[in-house]
Amino acid sequence: MPTKLEWLSALLTERQIRIISSNQLISEVSSKQNDRIIKLRNNGKNIPPMKNNLAIVPRFSPERPVNISPFQLLHAIGQITTPPIQNLVEFCSTWAIVRYIWAFRIPTSSTIEDLRLSDEAREIDFHQKGLLSDQVGVGMAKFLMTNFMGVNKSVDVDYALNDRAKYANIQPTGTTIPDYLFHDDSFINLYIVECKGNQTSRKSAYNQMRRGTEQVPSITFPNSKRYTSLIIATCMLSDCTEIYILDPPEQNKNIDKIKKVKKVGQNEWKIIDPKKFEDDLNSLNRAKLLSFSGAHEEAYHQLPEDYKEKKKLSQIAFEKSIERSVNGFGIFKGVTRKIPSIDRNAIEIFQGLHEDVFNSYIKSDETEAIFHLKDLRKIFVSKEKSIQNKEIFSYDISKIQEGESIIIQSVCMDGTMLQIKIT
Fold first, then answer.
1. Which of 122, 192, 306, 405 is the 20 to 30 Å CA partner of 300?
2. 86, 314 in Cβ contact below 8 A?
3. Of 382, 360, 207, which Cα lies nearest the Cα of 293?
4. Residues of the chain with confidence (pLDDT) below 50
């Protein structure tokens, strides 16, 4: 069995995934929709609303190979699963990172291999498999939206649409992961994403996407402002990993201003006050990233006032002092957690946010934060352009040998950093 150090080193090795958005995929999902309709009719049950005007996403059509390192995926999982409100769930980002260090197959050759789960990961029990699949599915969606759609900010749709009572106690487990709303700094690019994941079969992934056509919410904005709906399903097969992505387009209508958000159907929402909606999304994103870096009290103060009423700040024993870490991208502020181990390896995980962005978010200064993020992104572009024919990605990873320690760092264009140190 590989050692923990071997698994950690393997996290840096790039693997290949295949992103698929094709007419054949539309046909497969549509077939699942028809099967569902026939079954419900035969049983005398109501047919739920389904988005059946499925479309391909051109940049991935019909298929596009993409390289990704498992460590980039772990970074994405940790970032997107961190809630903006301080509670026990905030351990989920660290927990997922530690749990899945061992989950990916160690490469056996010098060529780029397909991303595959390790034998140990494929042999765990059914419920644990479902949890792993869900987490990887969400992390993969975050990775793709950041790298290819140019949107670094993400908020849980339940939270964005003010379903606060449900979100306050949500756990990142189970068979369904909530939708996410992704957007860029200017809200020009806005996406509603339904995330799926499985390690069973392609047919299971198609059926998950069929369920996604019933689950992805319809949101109507005033003044014909548009967004894009996406369903992203990650299928981790025994010999490869495939990502299926489709776009069920929406028809937006003009509406009158009444308040920020109004629910008009089982899964339909109208955005009445777009300025309030966008301001709240920015507030929630600031809270989410400050929580990722361990600044829980500061994160709480970023929440919109009506959200604070639903969740009071509590002091908890595992709150830690903010530390600083320096690398080629600058100074990062965050927290380090030491993970107990029964062997001789000591594991330390640092989660942080670029210091300038961190300080801007504490001041609730979005304009200043965007300025610093643009400077950070210039470093990414400069580094990537120095490598001939390499596509510019939004995650940069590096490995450092420091005495008896191995340090792996990942920096993302959203200002977050993840570091794992094993001694």
1. 192
2. yes
3. 360
4. 88-90, 163-177, 251-259, 316-318
**Cα 148 vs. chain centroid, distance in angstroms?**
13
- DSSP one-letter string for 302-357: HS-HHHHTTS-----TT----EEEEETTEEEEEEEEEEP-SSS--EEEEEEEEHHH
SS3 238: coil
CB contact at 8 A, 325 and 318? no
Pairing between strand 241-246 and 228-236?
antiparallel
CA R_g for the chain: 21
The H or E element spanning position 94 is: helix 92-99
* Total count of residues recorded for the chain: 423
pLDDT at 263: 58
Tokens 């569902």, located at residue: 36
pTM of the predicted model as reported, rounded to 2 decimal places: 0.86
Which residues have a Cβ under 8 Å from the Cβ of 89 and sit 6 or more positions away? Answer: 83, 170, 171, 172
pLDDT confidence of residue 269:
76
